[in-house]
Specification:
single chain, 267 residues, alpha/beta, 6-stranded mixed beta sheet, 53% helix, 16% strand
Length: 267
């Protein structure tokens, strides 16, 4: 079964996340997503890219738990390279506007996928959050871009409480652009895509390139440091305990006690 679905509709490349049950991101899925974005970038018939989910009530759950539990340090860095660095590079050089249509739950790395797009349209039922802290992980990638979007104090609140926010909350914070009724998000995103597709293509391409250069602000350099922080914390006892607790819905403190002196993840 395909985990990424690609089709072109009326000059819009629609890329659908389709990895059941929650579009969790593993290395093959990330690679296919990057390939689809690159395909859209070089297609002269494509004027806009629209990213959405083929899974009902889910946009993207973030990194697959198996990646965090089972991958070695080098493998994990490879996955994070794709999610944080390569995804940014592809979006940066896309040459055409990108829109995320979000319906349902969006968490952690799924937030990275959504906000990497130029515009985010969400349904009233969409929810957003950065739950990494509860599993003993650092949402370090979001340290780079989130304060720039919502401000320092608001970013700290979201990242260190791990709380879930509604689409309306996300709109008020400036994380997303529009909220529409549940069941209409894809139609609204398609309408927005057609508005963008109707603009002069070369003007949009040049204008977007200038816009991306202005807002870059050493993002790529900062991302490298964030990846290193994430990997270092993911290898620690608290992360192993938190991930094991999440897998079995157990209390992290008891898991940590049971793992004392052990270097293996028991998940």
């Amino acid at each position: 079964m395909e985990t990424i679905i690609y089709e072109v509709r009326e000059s819009v490349a629609e890329i659908a996340l389709a990895r059941a049950p929650a579009n969790a991101l593993d290395e093959p899925t990330l690679q296919k997503l990057l390939d689809a974005l690159r395909r859209a970038a070089i297609d002269p018939e494509v004027r806009v890219v629209l990213l959405h989910s083929a899974i009902a009530n889910r946009f993207c759950a973030g990194l697959d738990l198996k990646v965090l539990r089972d991958y070695g340090a080098q493998q994990l860095r490879g996955v994070l390279q794709k999610l944080y660095v390569d995804l940014f590079d592809v979006q940066f050089n896309l040459g055409k506007p990108s829109i995320a249509a979000v319906s349902g739950a969006t968490r952690g790395g799924g937030m990275t996928v959504a906000v990497a797009c130029d515009l985010v349209v969400a349904s009233t039922a969409a929810t957003f959050g950065y739950p990494e802290i509860d599993s003993g992980l650092l949402p370090a990638i979001h340290y780079v871009h989130l304060p720039r979007i919502v401000g320092r104090q608001r970013a700290f609140d979201l990242l260190f409480t791990g709380r879930t926010i509604s689409a309306q909350d996300a709109l008020e914070l400036g994380l997303i652009n529009r909220v529409v009724e549940e069941g209409h998000v894809l139609d609204a995103a398609r309408q927005l895509a057609q508005t963008l597709a109707s603009k002069p293509a070369e003007t949009v391409r040049r204008g977007r390139a200038a816009f991306m250069s202005v807002i870059d602000q050493n993002y790529r350099r900062d991302i490298a440091a964030a990846v290193e922080q994430f990997c270092n914390v993911a290898a620690g006892e608290e992360a192993r305990a938190g991930l094991a607790a999440f897998s079995g819905r157990r209390d992290p403190d008891r898991v940590r006690d049971s793992q004392a002196g052990s270097n293996e993840l028991n998940a």
